[in-house]
Amino acid sequence: MNPHIRRTSDLAEFEKTIGFSFKNKDLLTNALVHRSYHNEHRGFTLPSNEKLEFLGDSVLSLITSLHLYTQYPEYQEGDYTDMKASIVNTFQLYEAAKKINLGSYLYLSKGEQDNNGRDNTSILADAFEAVIGVIYIEFGFDAAYSFVKKFLFEDTLDKIVADKLYLPAKNILQEHYQDKFKKLPAYKVLEESGPEHNKMYEVGVYDDDKLIATGSGKSKKQAEEQAASNALQKLGI
């Protein structure tokens, strides 16, 4: 047996967790291979999971769009865009990956493992998309949909929609001020730095003349959104 291949019991345990039994075990294994693994295991024949991640990302996009369209018909296209961004992002995919203990099954280099790679947000999020990709290949769209619905949407998407957490921070802060104070917060550029082609902006958000919070970004819009997000945290919203 190739020493690099996970024990059958390991894969069986993972299959039980995700609810699918693969005929093609190499396909499932491939979803678990981080590119760093090849740096120390030149003879390992399976490629990294990057192409499967690419496929899974596309499948996930369609699943999410279809789910939003069918389950939340009262909303508009712009709402769907914000909702989709709030559920299909690195943090939410990372949280979903933790539900299935995905980090325990990954093929990582020793260096990546020592660098806490099994709990790395980006690595886990990418691997989760790769798993969606292999489920789609072996079992089809409906199976991939069920997997995403169970581990990504369940208990999360409904809350995001009900509590309007999909709204940009600026919108949430604006609604808060309109409802509570019958006025709007104001934004002011505090500093611009860097060359013209790569500027950084620092923006403050104000309650009249009182500074609530600041934010920075590569555009005024990005800096304002960060400032609003920081303001929401300070206000406990």
From TrEMBL:
Q: Which UniProt keywords apply?
A: Cytoplasm, Endonuclease, Hydrolase, Magnesium, Metal-binding, mRNA processing, Nuclease, RNA-binding, rRNA processing, rRNA-binding, tRNA processing
Instruction: Output compositional bias ranges, type Polar residues.
Output: 227-237
Q: Which reaction does it catalyse?
A: Endonucleolytic cleavage to 5'-phosphomonoester
**Matching CDD domains, A to Z?**
DSRM_RNAse_III_family, RIBOc
Organism annotation = Candidatus Roizmanbacteria bacterium RIFCSPHIGHO2_02_FULL_43_11
The record's region (Disordered) falls at 216-237
DRBM domain location is 168-237
* GO process terms (BP): mRNA processing; regulation of gene expression; rRNA processing; tRNA processing
Matching InterPro entries, A to Z? dsRBD_dom, RNase_III, RNase_III_dom, RNase_III_sf
Q: Which family would the database say this protein is a member of?
A: Belongs to the ribonuclease III family.
What this protein needs as a cofactor is:
Mg(2+)
* Gene Ontology MF terms in the entry: double-stranded RNA binding; metal ion binding; ribonuclease III activity; rRNA binding
Q: Where does Mg(2+) bind?
A: 53, 126, 129
**Is tRNA processing found in the keyword set?**
yes
Q: What protein name applies here?
A: Ribonuclease 3
The record, for Gene3D superfamilies, names: 3.30.160.20, Ribonuclease III domain (1.10.1520.10)
EC number(s) per entry? 3.1.26.3
Q: Which SUPFAM superfamilies match?
A: dsRNA-binding domain-like, RNase III domain-like
Q: What does this protein do?
A: Digests double-stranded RNA. Involved in the processing of primary rRNA transcript to yield the immediate precursors to the large and small rRNAs (23S and 16S). Processes some mRNAs, and tRNAs when they are encoded in the rRNA operon. Processes pre-crRNA and tracrRNA of type II CRISPR loci if present in the organism.
The annotated active site, in chain numbering, is 57, 129
